[in-house]
Amino acid sequence: MFLSPSGINEIFMKKELLSIAAIFSVAFLFAQPGLYFNISGGYGWSAPQQNLQVLTFQPSGTDPANSVIVPLINQNISDSASLKFQANKYQGYATGGNINAVVGYMITNYIGVEMGFGGLIGKKLNGKSVYDDPTVLGNNASIVTNTWSYGVTLSPGIRIHACKPGAKVVPFGRFALTLPVWGKTIHELDITSSNFLLTKMPASAKIRTETESVASIGFNGSIGVGYNITKWLRVYGEVLGNYLFVRIGENSLKRYDLTFNGETSDMLPTFSKYSSTTEFVDKLDENSNTTIYGKKRKLMAQPGDKVVDEDKPRQVLRSAANFSAFGFNVGLTFTINNTAWKKKKNKQFVPVHQ
């Protein structure tokens, strides 16, 4: 079989291209820092906002299904108060400590890609409301709310170094997505009444709910500076910002202890699924499991009425919790330098002759 001159030239061109690609591949693998691992910890505060971020539940009767979601504020609007007042509390669920781990790879001396794993340990936020309830709790009823969040996020992103290779001081910036993968928001309510159900007898309730989210996405970024202690170890600090609204998925009642006339009862087993669980959806209509469009509760229904399904969660329109924040981190970077590994691998043993 014979090849024409053009065919021979084509083969040589392909070989040259393959050789060039191989050279660039080797250079890509061994002419840059390589793998790195970060571990860090820090603290964050909620980003400035124009509205109230933190919410709570206000009971309306003894059935949790009748409760309403309201902003968490401090107030005393009871007629027995010497000075009535209401005060906003600009708090945020993202306030608290954080721990982070990052696995990354520097594509060049200046640009890298990474995957971050972050954990939020939220600060407990609180508010107190004192008011008069003419039907259930009576006058001067008090509700103290404590709420906090915790969770884990993934952050795929890019990193940019603004220094020459081998520099001691390493200014850097990074930009990444924020992908919540697991977490919960806890609400604990401590309710006291001096005239429960207008019996002139005191009562109290301790309630706990847990809220889970559905798929959400946000963005985060930071700028910082590191200092190379050795070729393998760097200490760094950074300031960061995170923009994230978490879409609420489901809220479940986990505790409802009612103390009346000196006896405490666990009310949780007495509630239906409709009363104890709330599902947040993007659309409500007359087919939804809610009383908004005319459906009745089973005990209140008349013949011919449409009723809600007590064995399914109550459905309400979805909202989003603001987890936007700014903060700082300090940490360590461990670098596995490809060039150093190559030198170590190619180092030959030289025998010593006596």
Task: Identify the notable features of this structure and list them briefly.
single chain; 354 residues; mainly beta; Porin; 8-stranded antiparallel barrel; 53% strand; disordered C terminus
CATH topology-level fold name? Porin
CATH architecture: Beta Barrel
Instruction: Give the strand tally.
Output: 19
- The overall number of domains is 1
| Broad shape | elongated
Run of helices and strands:
HEEEEEEEEEEEEEEEHEEEEH
Mean pLDDT over all positions: 86
The low-confidence parts are 1-31, 349-354
Gyration radius over CA: 30 Å
Broad CATH class: Mainly Beta
Q: What is the rounded distance between the termini?
A: 61 Å
DSSP summary: helix tally: 3
Strand order of the largest sheet: 1-6-7-9-10-12-13-19
- Beta-strand content bin: over 45%
Give the helix level as a range of percent.
10-25%
Main pleated sheet: 8 strands, antiparallel, barrel
Secondary-structure-based class equals mainly beta
Describe this structure in words.
The protein is elongated and about 80 Å long. The N terminus and C terminus are likely disordered. The strands form two sheets. The protein has an eight-stranded antiparallel barrel with strand order 1-6-7-9-10-12-13-19. By secondary structure, it is mostly beta strands. The longest helix is centred in the N-terminal third of the chain and has 26 residues. The chain has one domain: Porin (Beta Barrel). The protein contains three helices and 19 strands.
